[in-house]
Specification:
Elements (H helix, E strand, L loop, with lengths): L4 H7 L5 H13 L4 H8 L7 H15 L7 H6 L7 H18 L11 H16 L4 H15 L5 H12 L5 H14 L1
Length: 184
Amino acid sequence: MMLSELQKKLDYVNAYRENRLKAAQNVLENPSLFNELVSICFSPENKNNHKACWILEFVSYEELLWLQPHLDFFCSNLKILKDESAIRPIAKVTQLLIKSHYKKDENCISLSENNLQDIIEASFDWLINDVKVATKAYSIRTLYVLGNHYDWIHPELKIILNKDYGDHSPAYKAVAKEVLKKIK
C-alpha cells in the first residue's frame, strides 16, 4: 500500500509539542489533508492513529469549523477509540465542539441531537472508565456545559464526582471541586 504524504509525515511526529505543532501547521496550510487526518484519527488499527489525534487537536484550535462536515463521523466513532494517547486529544476537541455549539454566534459549530447524544455517552464513559486525569477533566467540563441544556446531566455528574472524589489525583479534585461548586 502506498503511504500518503500525511502518513509519511505522521511517521515522524513525536510527542514534543513543537513537533506536533509543525505537523498541524502543515495541515492548516494544506486543507486537502484534513479529511484524511480525521479518517486516521478513527482508524485504531493505524499505527499513527494517536498522532493524527494530536494533530487534530492543534488544528481544531485554529480551524474548528473544518470539523463541521465530519461531525456525524467524528461523534459516532468516539466510542471506538481505546488508546489513551488518542482519547485525550479527542476529549479536548469534543470540549471545544461543545463550547462552540452553545456559543450561538455566526461562526459556531452546529451539532445535531445525535452528535450531542454521542458526545454525552463518550464523555460519561471516559469519566467512569480508567483513563488518565486530563481526559476526565475535559469530560467533566464538557458534561458541565451539556448539563446546562440537559436537566439530567448535572445530577448524574454530581453523583460520579462525589463518589470518585477521594480516589483521584489533586488535578482531578481541582476540576471536580470547581464544577461541583457551579452545580450545587
